[in-house]
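LOG
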Amino acid sequence: MVKIAEIDSLAKEFSKLPSIGPKSALRLTYFYINNKPLIGNMVNALNNLMNNVDKCNVCHNITSKSVNPCLYCSDINRNKYQICVVESFQDVDSIESSGTYNGCYHVLGGVISSLNNISYDDIYVTDLIRRVNKNDTFEIILATSFTLEGDATAMYIKSLFKDYSNISFSRLASGLPRGANLEYIDENTLGRALSGRVQYDS
């Protein structure tokens, strides 16, 4: 097959997407070649995403640039003294869909992982400390995944607050399988785990 630079370039970009291998990337490229009118729609959608979507300057969840802090942080009806710490934007969506939580969030943007060269400097941990003062009582719900990295991150976060007597820590209750990522847990199971969370003393 004749190599065409434009095709190779787009396929290379598609291959950077999660779960997209070289063959799938090439299939997507061919799809757009055969459906050129859709390219303009995709370009517009990506431009809108780039120009109008940002991270919340409080919790680091995704938000519109015109609404910052995000809807959860600015909602006066949510419990500001209850902070659910999650790894990703998707985890926020999963917890919200359970309909059992009315506090605020803090998105870490990942977990500490020596295998992937991710340290505490690479996630939004210090910003969490800034959100908590010693004059109010807080509950921090450690909702990182039930993996070695998720557990290590939860333990590290708790250690940062060892001098804060005004903070209680909890972890999602049993019912979630070991090694599970919140993104893939059904909303009923996640809702029960959140409602039945237990004090975290590890």
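LOG (cont.) second protein
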Amino acid sequence: MTSISWQDVPRTNFMLLHAARLQAHYAAQWLARAARAYIPAQPQDRHTNLGWDDAFGGLTTHPLPDGSRLGLRIADLTLAFLDQHPHQLPLDGRADAEVRTWLGGHVAARNLASGKLDDPSPYAIPDHALGLGARYTLDEYGDAFKVLSVWYSNADAALASVQKRLAAKKLKAPVVRCWPHHFDMDTLVDLGRGRSMGIGYCPGDEFCDEPYFYTSMWPEPSIPNLPLLPAMAHWHTYKFLAALAPAHKIVAAHHQGNYVQQFLDVSVAAALNALR
């Protein structure tokens, strides 16, 4: 077992982490808007997916026409252009109308049509007061944003380790990316003949309101034939089938990174076996 890069995650109030995650999810839509507006379309909206930049501490778009990337630093909720002339906007205390004015001015200065930022999104995200004109706020959520950033950094490193090992075995495992629709990171492995395996991380959703790692399979195998998972994980079966390792069990582990590595090793092996 190859050890993964991991920063220990402190125990966190999951209600505060939930609130921080929703704000960050909304803020990430500015990256998605820019990608839809200025990056050539790809199948399955791949042009809108985001990478994790560990040095920046946030999510970034694919390169825009001028070579820059638009990023969202998670720990302090700041939008920034990443290039030789960086410009950034802390979102704390600002409403989306103000963000639109700032971003529109900067894309126009880069000879991009700012009106394209207003094209409608092809998907809905969870309702939030930000959508009604409320302001982003760090206030009591400051520590939660920092913890959320650590989760994303850890997830990118852990999933990239798995992706590289699978690619070395000549499996079609694309690089790890974050999808602004669900705000999750994954590598979706194409196993051929209509079979696929998703290996990912989600910061929380309607199925599990805390961060979690998962391994999903398609088509879904027979549940009774699935193997036992490590103690911190379980098989999720409501609306989709996946091995799932939730945050509250990971943070309680003596060696968090080893627990996650064990989960990924066992669940990926189980998925490959089930999809043979």
